[in-house]
Design brief:
Helix content: 10-25%
Shape: flat
Number of domains: 3
Structural class: alpha+beta
CATH class of the largest domain: Alpha Beta
CATH architecture of the largest domain: 3-Layer(aba) Sandwich
Number of helices: 10
Radius of gyration: 23 Å
CATH superfamily of the largest domain: Vaccinia Virus protein VP39
Number of strands: 21
Strand order of the largest sheet: 8-7-6-9-10-11-12
Largest sheet: 7 strands, mixed
Oligomer: single chain
Length: about 425
C-alpha cells in the first residue's frame, strides 16, 4: 500500500476514474477526469483520500447514502451520482461507441435515451438479520457490508414507500445472520418479492403469510422460485397485453426503457409477416410484435415460456404465437430453420448470442434487431453479422440503470 497525488485521465468502463502512473493505470472510484486527487494505492486499485482539485463536472450526489467518505455508508448501488448529467450521458454513449470500434465497427450511434430518478420498477436488495434490526439495502462497494437504506432515488416511489413493509416481511422469513437477496418488482397489482438464500421453517412460513396478509400492496412472496403466499397474481402490462411473470423472472428494470426498446424493435420489424423472437423471456417483444405478425418465441426458461404462452392464448386480437423452450447457447436455431422468418429479434443475457449469430449469419433473414445489455458482447455479435453481409442501420444506447456503468443498446441490421 502506498499513497500519492495523481491526475485522473479518464473514466474506465466501470465508471472508476483512471490515472496513468509509472507503474501502470490506477482505478479510483468516485473520481472524475481532470481531477487531482490523493490516493491510497494497492496495486491497480486506488482509494480516494482527499480531493485536491475538483472537476467542474462534479455535482452534489442526490442520495445521502452515496459518498466516498463512508460517513453515510458509501452505498454500492450507484457509482456515478457525483458526475454531471452531460459527463454521465457521454460516458454511457461512449461505452457503446468504444466497444463497437474495438471490432472495427463505426456506425452512427444515436444520442442516449436517458433514465430518470424514480424509474426503476425492479431492484435487488441484500438483507441480513442482526440482533438489533433487519438490514436492507445494497452492499458497500467492494465489500460484503450492507448499507441499510432509508431512501433510494433510482427506485420507484412504489418500492421506496414500502421499504418498512419489505423489512417486516424479510424479518419474518430470516432465521439466522446469513445474508440473503430480495428481488423486488413493482407490478400493476402490487409488489412481487422474490427471496433467495433462505430456508423457511413451518413457523416462519406461517409468520410470513400473516405478515403479508396484514399489509397492503404486496402481490406475492416467493422463496427460491416457490410461492409462499400470493394475495394477488402479479401482472405486468406489455402495451395492453397482461402477463403474469413467474417468481423471480427477468423483466426490464424500467418501463420507460422497455417502451423505448420495444418502439425501436417494432419500427424495424415493420410489416414482417413472420418473426422469430430469440431469448424471448416472458414476451417483452414477442407479444407486442404479435399485434401485426406471426411470432415464434424461443426461451430457455420453462416458466417464462409458460407465462408467455398463457398471455398469448388469453389475449384477443393477436396473430398466432408459438412458444418453444430451447437453450439457444447449446442448441441455437439453425440457418435452415431461420429461413422461414422475415425478421429476427434477439435479446440475450450478458454473455451475448455468439452461437446464434453464427447461424443467423448463414441464414437469409432480411432484418435483425439485436437488443443487448453488454456493449462488448454486442460488438462481437454484430461483427459476426456484418462479416456475413449485414449492414447496421441503427444503434441506440438506452439507460435504465441510472448512475451505473450498465447500458442497454438496440442495434438494427438489414441484409
Amino acid at each position: 500500500m502506498s499513497t500519492g497525488i495523481v491526475t485522473i485521465d479518464r473514466l474506465g468502463a466501470q465508471g472508476d476514474g483512471v490515472a496513468r502512473t509509472e507503474a501502470g493505470p490506477v482505478f479510483a472510484p468516485f473520481t472524475l477526469p481532470g481531477e487531482i486527487v490523493s490516493l491510497a494505492v494497492d496495486k491497480a486499485n486506488g482509494t480516494l483520500i482527499s480531493l485536491k482539485k475538483a472537476s467542474p463536472e462534479r455535482v452534489e450526489p442526490p442520495c445521502r447514502h452515496f459518498g466516498p467518505d463512508g460517513v453515510n455508508g458509501t452505498c454500492g448501488g450507484c457509482t456515478l451520482q457525483h458526475a454531471s448529467d452531460a459527463l454521465y450521458h457521454a460516458f454511457k454513449r461512449n461505452l457503446v461507441i468504444d466497444a463497437l470500434r474495438s471490432k472495427g465497427l463505426t456506425p452512427e450511434v444515436a444520442p442516449l435515451i436517458i433514465a430518470r430518478p424514480g424509474d426503476r420498477r425492479r431492484a435487488v436488495f441484500t438483507a441480513r438479520r442482526t440482533e438489533k434490526e433487519l438490514l436492507l439495502g445494497y452492499n458497500q462497494m467492494q465489500s460484503h457490508h450492507i448499507v441499510s437504506i432509508g431512501e433510494c432515488p433510482i427506485t420507484s416511489p412504489g418500492i421506496v414507500s414500502r421499504l418498512a413493509t419489505i423489512r417486516k416481511i424479510a424479518a419474518a422469513m430470516a432465521s439466522s445472520a446469513e445474508p440473503f437477496r430480495i428481488t423486488v418488482l413493482e407490478t400493476d397489482t402490487g409488489l412481487d418479492l422474490a427471496f433467495e438464500g433462505l430456508k423457511l421453517s413451518d413457523p416462519q412460513r406461517r409468520s410470513t403469510v400473516d405478515a403479508v396478509l396484514g399489509e397492503r400492496g404486496i402481490a406475492r412472496v416467493s422463496l427460491n422460485g416457490e410461492i409462499v403466499v400470493e394475495p394477488l397474481k402479479p401482472a405486468i402490462d406489455f402495451a395492453g397485453i397482461t402477463v403474469s411473470p413467474p417468481p423471480g423472472a427477468f423483466t426490464q428494470a424500467t418501463r420507460p426503457a422497455e417502451d423505448a426498446m420495444a418502439k425501436l424493435v417494432l419500427a424495424h420489424v415493420g410489416k414482417a409477416k413472420r418473426v422469430a423472437d430469440l431469448f424471448a423471456g416472458i414476451g417483452t417483444f414477442a407479444l407486442r410484435i404479435a399485434r401485426t405478425a406471426r411470432v415464434h418465441a424461443v426461451e430457455g426458461d420453462d416458466r417464462a415460456v409458460k407465462a408467455l404462452d398463457f398471455a398469448a392464448r388469453n389475449t384477443q386480437g393477436l396473430k398466432p404465437v408459438t412458444a418453444e423452450k430451447r437453450d439457444l447457447f447449446r442448441r441455437p436455431m439453425m440457418a435452415q430453420e431461420l429461413k422461414a422468418f422475415d425478421a429476427v429479434v434477439f435479446d440475450p443475457p450478458r454473455a451475448g448470442a455468439e452461437p446464434q449469430c453464427h447461424e443467423l449469419a448463414r441464414s437469409g433473414v432480411k432484418k435483425v434487431a439485436a437488443v443487448s445489455c453488454n456493449p462488448v458482447t454486442l460488438a462481437r455479435d454484430l461483427s459476426i453479422l456484418t462479416a456475413a453481409g449485414y449492414r447496421i442501420t441503427g444503434v441506440t444506447p438506452i439507460d435504465q440503470f441510472l448512475w451505473s456503468a450498465h447500458v442497454e443498446t438496440v442495434a438494427t441490421l438489414e441484409k
